[in-house]
Amino acid sequence: MPTEEAERVNLPLLWHIPFSHFNEKVRWALDFKNIPHQRRCLGADYLFKVWRATGRGTLPVLFLDGKPVGDSTAIIAALEERQPEPALYPKDPAQRRRALELEDYFDEVLGPSLRAAAVTPMFREDPDLALRVLMTGMPDAAYDNLRRIARIFPAYYRFRHRISARRLQQDRADVTDALDRISRELQPSGYLVGETFSVADLTAAALLSPVMRPAELQYPLKVALPDSLRQFRDELAPHPAAQWSLEIYRRHRGSSAEVKRAKTDRVDEPR
């Protein structure tokens, strides 16, 4: 567990959104390596701050020694260089290439498709409930502020993430294809590459987490699971790869390495 002494050093700082599966991917990597770090939950106004820090408008962003690193894949690469053990990259060069290829596939196919397949019906079912789900883990003020633009937020969110309701069936099919690929790629060890847990396993499981809702998630929903999300989960749950993702969480998610900030502490944010 992080110690009081750890709070006195220049800890990595994670800018994140709790509900996001790409953000969960990085939180998991930090926790797996037991890297003491602090977290700052950004609200819906994160875009300008992130653009100013990294030149791109996406979260998560991890500040290492005050320098921002954006994109979950780049962040994990930086963490592997900074603290190689416990490793997320296989030591064997061929296995490492395979793990990185799978990470890229899940990032480019599973992540966006699952987000679209989950969020599109939620906005259609109950926009306010969808907003509360997306605000999971954020202060109440974040929801109150965003609710003022609730009428236009669904359109903004779809535009921001290139989500089209017309693609819903294709997005669902892409998620199923990714699950099928997980099943095909699984080795006798129960992992996707070689004999041990790697970045490929972490990525696949983390990107499924918003729908599968493993018990180990650190930011549980504070509202009832929307019917559309529950139905989607129930459709995916019988797939062997979906059950595999829950087992990977049970085996490897572990506890948080976050160092909580005392409310009275003054924290200098990166500029």
List the helices and strands and how they pair.
Layout: E1 13-16, H1 21-32, E2 38-41, H2 46-54, E3 61-64, E4 67-70, H3 72-82, H4 93-125, H5 127-134, H6 140-147, H7 153-160, H8 168-185, H9 199-212, H10 227-236, H11 240-252
Parallel strand pairs: 1-2
Antiparallel strand pairs: 1-3, 3-4
Helix pairs in contact: 1-3, 1-9, 4-5, 4-8, 4-9, 4-10, 9-11
Shape: globular
Could you tell me the number of beta strands?
4
The tally of helices reads 11
What pattern of helices and strands is seen along the backbone? EHEHEEHHHHHHHHH
**How large a portion of the residues is in β-strands, by DSSP E?**
5-15%
Per CATH, what is the topology of the largest domain? Glutathione S-transferase Yfyf (Class Pi), Chain A, domain 2
Describe this structure in words.
It is a single chain. With 271 residues, the chain is mainly alpha-helical. The chain has two domains: 5-82, Glutaredoxin (3-Layer(aba) Sandwich); 93-252, Glutathione S-transferase Yfyf (Class Pi), Chain A, domain 2, CATH 1.20.1050.10. The protein has helices spanning 21-32, 46-54, 72-82, 93-125, 127-134, 140-147, 153-160, 168-185, 199-212, 227-236, 240-252, and strands spanning 13-16, 38-41, 61-64, 67-70. It has a four-stranded mixed sheet with strand order 2-1-3-4, sandwiched between helices. Strand 1 (13-16), helix 1 (21-32) and strand 2 form a beta-alpha-beta unit. Helix 4 packs antiparallel against helix 8. Mean pLDDT is 87; it is low at 1-8 and 264-268.
